[in-house]
From TrEMBL, chain A:
Key word Signal present: yes
Source organism per UniProt: Pseudooceanicola nitratireducens
Protein name as it appears in the record: Twin-arginine translocation pathway signal
PROSITE patterns the UniProt entry points to: TAT
Record has Acetylation as a keyword: no
Pfam families associated with the record: DUF1513
Upper lineage: Bacteria, Pseudomonadati, Pseudomonadota, Alphaproteobacteria, Rhodobacterales
Signal sequence, start to end: 1-23
Domain of life: Bacteria
Keywords: Signal
Record-linked InterPro entries: TAT_signal, UCP028101
TrEMBL record, chain B:
Location(s), subcellular: Cell envelope
Annotated Pfam families: Peptidase_M75 (PF09375)
Lineage: Bacteria, Pseudomonadati, Pseudomonadota, Alphaproteobacteria, Rhodobacterales
InterPro entries assigned to the protein according to its UniProt record, in alphabetical order: Imelysin-like, Imelysin-like_IPPA, Imelysin_sf
GO CC, any one term: cell envelope
Domain Imelysin-like as annotated: residue spans: 32-307
Protein name: Imelysin-like domain-containing protein
Signal peptide segment: 1-21
Source organism: Pseudooceanicola nitratireducens
Keywords: Signal
């Protein structure tokens, strides 16, 4: 007679690889890196209301984390021009893999999973030519490097997986070289774009009017149909240049601006973008405000909060994080603080699918 | 708190809950008097312009209002942000020449909005505020306008609009003061703990110093090869250096109020910068075009940058706050 205990034991023995899910890591809804009170850094898993689910120490300040769609794994990128990324097992808190960028490359700080989570895509700089690359890594093979394509521009920053394993890539247009730190080497000639790619290569490149060539396209959000792109103005400030664009493949991009005073108050800088329902938001830590627009491009509201940067969807609303430790829920016309954590939330709040 | 006048609010502060040291002083001794002063001067400007809108009659109160604005302008958060008020009151820097084009358009069209305060509040912000007023009062293009001219009515409309905004700022500052002083208390959604209130004022102090160094001094300095004296702030009304001096004084006042212990390095840095500014005989920074004159303005700029360093080391440490984690270092 098979006992329950014996059945479970044989089941475990039969499976070659334990299949853990995000539930095993406490069901976090979000990931965010933070600087803690003692000056150290850590990656946090957060609940729907911003409560701590887990905390994993990091060796230094990271940039964005990329969450695996099903397995409790987070890829934490070093800040650019970093040459490594850590695949963190969010159940044990251990580093499961360490990705080194190939020789002559460095990471730009963002990644995305395609092929049901089997392939990690990373934005990279080919240092000698300055051309952007998208690197591919096989999760099944222990995150081995398996290939790459051109990103379709210079300085690819955020990369987003769309339905059908299409990738949206924000080619920020800014050339950097590790020997010059984060110095911007080509501002007068920069030409950012939004590119769409598959693992086989770039399919479509969208550029704005030449008079907006100083608007670096850096961060992305999508509802699967519309891609929102957030920009950072590289020209003289103050300037009312648009910082948000909405694009559907095959159509012309729609640029979104608030009224003159509000637009200038963003300080030419959008740090993160998120989309939910018919709402899209961009944050400006420098301007201390979040701008909300409808998917029709119409300005909805400005919500003020110092040093606000992280932004992700939360049902029909948005969730924002800031450098003062605040976690805030944003609706189309108001901001509700949910909690204040004793730490400075870093640039990005990442929704786990 | 809406019904409290500023005066009664000031009196009621004695019973406020314990707060991050420095915040009550900065609110009570610095912010509220500055708000009040600007409201008084903007009212005087509006009353005088309504009585006589010719340039000779309006210019003295224009200067008084501008002086008072410099006592407040660095508190750019909250009430000054609502409806873009700070930028409407002082649309500068104006890289694209929007003040000139908007004023020219209003005058050319004889825009009827001047007849109605509510309608005038809908005019493009570049056509309102102190810089639109400066253009009408001082620019040769409009100089000598007569009592019956459209320009005269526009001057009165701008003055009235400034008065409206100053009044709205004063009303909103009652709420803002209450929010700063009740930081971290139940129901306060603006400042979630004491540190946030201190951080808000501290950030305003640093941003104010940065604005003086980078914009008020940095814009006319341009580069050594290409100095840009024509970019000096309020040069038409000979106010460029005066604005710098008054700004530094106001920021010194805020630093004094906000600090919770002696700040000898900061005090010295402010004194050095003010000495340098008072010794500079270059009211609109015309000197940036020749090497020795340029050096003087550069030295003043360095003095202001030195204040920023001192403030970070002394007051930032006292308050336990720093610059914004994300605003200072984004990606």
């Amino acid at each position: 007679m098979t006992t329950r205990r014996g059945f479970l034991a044989s089941l475990l023995a039969a499976s070659t690889m334990p299949r853990l899910s995000w539930a095993d890591a406490g069901n976090p809804a979000y990931l965010s890196a933070a600087r803690e009170g003692d000056g150290g850094y850590a990656l946090f898993g957060l609940s729907e209301t911003g409560a701590d689910v887990f905390r994993i120490p990091l060796p230094g300040r990271g940039h964005a984390a990329t969450a695996h769609p099903t397995a409790p794994e987070a890829v934490a990128f070093a800040r650019r021009p970093g040459t490594f990324a850590l695949v963190i097992d969010c159940v044990t808190g251990h580093v499961a893999h360490r990705l080194e960028s190939p020789s002559g490359r460095h990471f730009y700080g963002h990644g995305a999973f395609v092929a049901g989570g089997d392939i990690l895509c990373t934005t990279e700089n080919d240092i000698d030519s300055g051309e952007g690359r998208i690197g591919f890594w096989s999760r099944r093979e222990g995150y081995a490097r398996i290939g790459e394509i051109a990103s379709g521009g210079i300085g690819p920053h955020e990369i987003l997986a769309l339905p059908g394993d299409v990738l949206a890539v924000a080619n920020g247009g800014i050339r950097t070289h590790p020997s010059r730190g984060r110095d911007k080497l080509n501002i007068p000639e920069m030409r950012p774009n939004l590119a769409y790619a598959r693992v086989s290569g770039v399919e479509e490149v969208v550029e704005l009017d030449p008079d907006l060539h100083l608007a670096s396209i850096r961060h992305l959000a999508s509802d699967g149909t519309t891609v929102g792109f957030a920009m950072q103005w590289q020209g003289d400030l103050p300037d009312p240049a648009p910082l948000l664009g909405l694009h559907r493949r095959g159509s012309a991009p729609v640029l979104c601006s608030a009224d003159l005073a509000e637009q200038m108050a963003m300080q030419g800088y959008a740090g993160s973008i998120a989309m939910t329902g018919d709402l899209v938001g961009i944050t400006s830590p420098r301007g201390g405000r979040v701008h909300l627009f409808g998917l029709d491009g119409a300005f909805r509201a400005a919500l003020r909060r110092a040093d606000v940067c992280g932004l992700a969807s939360r049902g029909a609303a948005l969730l924002a994080t800031d450098g003062l430790g605040g976690v805030l829920s944003l609706a189309s016309d108001r901001m509700e603080p949910l909690r204040v954590a004793p730490r400075a939330w870093d640039n990005h709040l990442v929704r786990i699918v | 708190m809406k019904h409290l006048t500023l005066a009664s609010l000031i009196l009621s502060l004695g019973c406020a809950a314990p707060l991050s040291a420095g915040v009550p002083e900065a609110v009570q001794d610095h912010a509220l008097p500055a708000v009040q002063s600007f409201a008084v001067q903007a009212r005087a400007l509006a009353v005088n312009a309504a009585a006589d809108c010719t340039a000779a009659a309006v210019i003295p109160s224009y200067h008084n209002a501008f002086d008072a604005w410099l006592g407040l302008a660095h508190l750019g958060f909250g009430p000054l942000e609502t409806d873009g008020r700070a930028l409407t009151i002082a649309f500068w820097p104006d890289k694209r020449g929007m003040v000139a084009s908007t004023v020219a358009r209003l005058v050319a069209d004889q825009d009827a909005a001047v007849a109605d305060a509510g309608e005038f509040a809908q005019v493009s912000i570049a056509g309102r505020g102190l810089f639109a007023l400066e253009r009408l009062l001082f620019d040769p293009e409009y100089a000598g306008y007569g009592r019956e001219d459209y320009s005269c009515r526009l001057v009165a409309a701008i003055a009235g609009d400034l008065d409206q905004m100053a009044g709205a700022i004063a009303a909103d500052w009652s709420d803002e003061a209450a929010a700063l002083l009740s930081a971290g208390e139940e129901g306060n959604t603006r400042y979630l703990n004491d540190a946030e209130a201190a951080q808000r004022l501290y950030t305003a102090l640093l941003a104010g110093l940065e604005f003086v160094a980078d914009q008020r001094l940095g814009r006319p300095l341009g580069t050594f090869d290409r100095p840009r004296p024509e970019r000096a702030e309020a040069r038409r009304s000979d106010r460029s250096l005066r604005n710098v001096t008054l700004s530094i004084s106001a920021l010194s006042d805020l630093a004094q109020a906000l600090s919770t212990a002696p700040t000898p390095v900061t005090d010295q840095a402010f004194a050095d910068a003010l000495d340098e500014a008072r010794a500079l005989d270059d009211p609109i920074f015309d000197g940036v075009s020749d090497p020795s004159g340029r050096l003087r303005v550069e030295i003043l700029q360095q003095r202001v940058q030195a204040i920023r360093t001192a403030v970070s080391a002394e007051i930032g440490a006292q308050l336990g706050v720093g610059t914004g984690f994300n605003s200072a270092d984004g990606d």
